[in-house]
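Board notes (copied after class):
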Amino acid sequence: MENKQEKPGQTPADGFNALFEKMQQMSQRMSNEAMRMSSQANGTGNSVMFDLMEGWRRFGGTAAAHPGPLIDRQMELWRNQMQIWQNAMMRMAGQASAPVVTPDKGDQRFRDQEWSDNPMFDFLKQSYLLTAKGIIDSVNAVEGIDDKTRQRLLFFTRQWINAVAPSNFLMTNPEVLRLTMESGGQNLIRGMEQLAEDMEKSADTLNIRMTDTSAFRLGENIATTPGKVVFRNRMIELIQYTPTTETVNKRPLVLVPPWINKFYIMDLREKNSFIRWAVAEGHTVFVISWVNPGRNYRDVRIDDYMQEGVIAALDQVQAITGERTVNMIGYCVGGMLLAMTLSWLQARGESDRVASATFWATIIDFSDPGDIGVFIDETIVSSIEKELDRNGVFDGRMMAVAFSLLRENDLYWNYYVQNYLKGERPIPFDLLYWNSDCTNLPGATHKFLLREFYLGNKLRQPGALTVAGESLDLSTVKTPVFVLATLQDHIAKWRSCYPATQVLGGPVKFVLGESGHIAGVMNPPDGKYGYYAHDGYPADADEWYAAAQKQDRSWWLEWKDWVQAFVGEQVPARQPGANGWPVLGDAPGSYVKMKADEVLKAG
């Protein structure tokens, strides 16, 4: 708690004046940054707003033509609001009353006891929750709106509703009010300082700090599995990890992480590091570490990610180990790139270079990409393309905000209140450190992903894509494939990953893990999540799920059993740098340490 006693010779007025002066300084810093952000050309934001306004126009027209459902819900909302008011009056008179509405399980915004004990704050909480539910129900109730429009209206309505929650404001948050009184406003000063710092490090949308970034040092207390950088070009560093067993599997294991994030999510901590575990299981593990591109990468295409990334890695692994055939894993967009590479190799008669492939959280069918789809249609993509032409790359900090807003209460407003209203410094949390360690996207590559995948849904269409001179067709891929999706994934919906069982031409094993995009994937053998499995693969994903059986163990163990058929016999352990192969440095390398904002400033 802050010490509110004045210094010797200082009057309360002096303390107030110092506080006021500090607030003025912070306000000026924030004002300067707000002007900088607002001065940035933001055609994409304007396009999103235009689409949203058009959606509300359709909503209004449909509601006017068929007002019945909307009127019914308005009447129900009015009756419930009156009941909340009556209950509040009863409580003020000392009588008990049951709540009309309560927060959902897991909603942490109203956990302070004052939200329930104080009749005024209880009324405010219930009134907000009831109104929020009524608005969402109204959007759902109106018929005659296409699914895409309704999804966009629901998403942005939810964003607005959660932004105006009483917990987000000083005068309507009892916990913040109490802290402000106890500290003499020092929590607000600390909060303003942090807000100014975060604004200065943001692009044109506020990136809220989620963790104490100073607590982590790559290679020291995060991403610590021993290994060496054994190859580097303009696109990748290739890391080979030091074996911990006397013998290893003959076929190496090559990991292809997403290039929109840093690879060390696979090596976050010792207890949940897939890389460390795979090394201990006898795999010779190689991982691609993607460069964090600056504006000079504006013309880098998906062809370059394949040729100078995946294919270059395969060539180097063969040169280092003498093995032409490897097992591979691709994560998220890294899995999409791996799928394209398998088709490319098949077209060139080189499919024997990959004995097995594993996809983690990899979308194959983009007809329903989830909430991220609200940011994607022809109008918005065209605007993004114009900004990419102007800027050269897509700023990774903007993508970080977009992904945070997919779970806005947990990953945005929670930290807004904690950092800026309570004035607390974020605690060290390795997963959130990784989450905030942004990666930029080259303009040409980002255009490809948006237009060919998200708009065109061409990945699954035979012959719809041509990459590095070859027409791609996933149905020609005969490589055995293990597909992992996760049940609560809000980035790569499991029903969008499941079509791999229908599209790929070889044997496919599909496993559905519990939890989400990160926790469900990085779930070691002693982890708390299980998975669902079933060997029959009907076209309908829900039909598969209805027949699937729950397994109370980590999917890592299921994959371990599956991949044994493709690892080959045992050979002496391979040390990085053996046979005179040059070592360029220690893992995790230098590319992973490149910061998104720093490379943008460098040009």
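Comment from the instructor: The two ends are 45 Å apart (CA to CA). The domain at 227-367+457-587 is CATH 3.40.50.1820 (Rossmann fold).
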